[in-house]
Amino acid sequence: MVADGLNGLRPAVGLEIHVRLRAPTKLFCGCRNDAHAEPNTLICPVCMGLPGSLPVLSADAVMLGARMALALGARVAPVSRFDRKHYFYPDLPRNYQITQKQAPLAVGGSLAVAGMTMPLERMHLEEDAGRLLAGPRPGTVAVDLNRAGAPLLEIVTRPVPAAGAGIRAWLRELRRLVRWLGIGDGSLEDGSLRCDANVGFVAPADRDDPAASAWSELKNLNSPGAVQRAVAYYRRPRTWRSIQKRAMDRDFSWRKSAEAYRALYRRVA
Ligand SMILES: [Zn+2]
Questions:
Q1: Which end of the chain is more exposed for a tag (fewer CB within 10 A), N or C?
Q2: What residue numbers bound the domain in which 122 lies?
Q3: For residues 25 and 56, what is the distance between their CA atoms, to the nearest angstrom?
Q4: Does any domain span residue 261?
Q5: Interval between CA 132 and ligand 1 midpoint (Å)
Q6: How does pLDDT run across 89-148, given as a tens digit for each residue?
Q7: What domain count does the chain have?
């Protein structure tokens, strides 16, 4: 598909799908893995990030991840490794997430649905964060750590030409496979299957175009229909043009925010 008026740029989409694994325990501790328990009843020093606690990997989660990888024709790595991804968020008590960046559980594979093949980049295991809820008083926030440390399998696809309806059918088929294999509940509604869509453009191989680096991540799309609508929105020529313009302006915006930050710093220092 060639995008009209876009100098040969082609819209593309890549998906990141988080599958909550149906393992009996969390990924690195013995706490029960149950999304429906009373808040903060399934917690321990490991998933609360208390000092001195040590993670122990769940073999069940590894086996479920490998089962999904083999079903999708991916190559399960003989050795894989876990990494820390540091960031602060109120529902992440350790201030880092244990994930796999350098050496994932599996690479490659694909899933073909109704003539559309989505090649897969990688599959890796990682732990979920907790959950923020509305607090007991207006303006307050409560934290539920039952989900902190729950086992997730992240499936990352390679970018493919954007095709809204095809993506919807593809996600439905992936969800059927998750359920049929007993990997997880596959429910987009209760968050046991979550999908982020990365939408952007690919430039022709012989050309460098700033718009081709302006990918947008649309997070937590909660149904195959929502993914389809999001992709359809990005396929509109008007959206493409505004993204292209934003990419051109990006250097300028960076300079502007750096100046604003320096002005703020001068005020508080
Ligand atoms: Zn725990």
A1: C
A2: 10-268
A3: 11
A4: yes
A5: 18
A6: 989 999 999 999 999 999 999 999 988 899 999 999 999 999 999 888 988 999 999 999
A7: 1
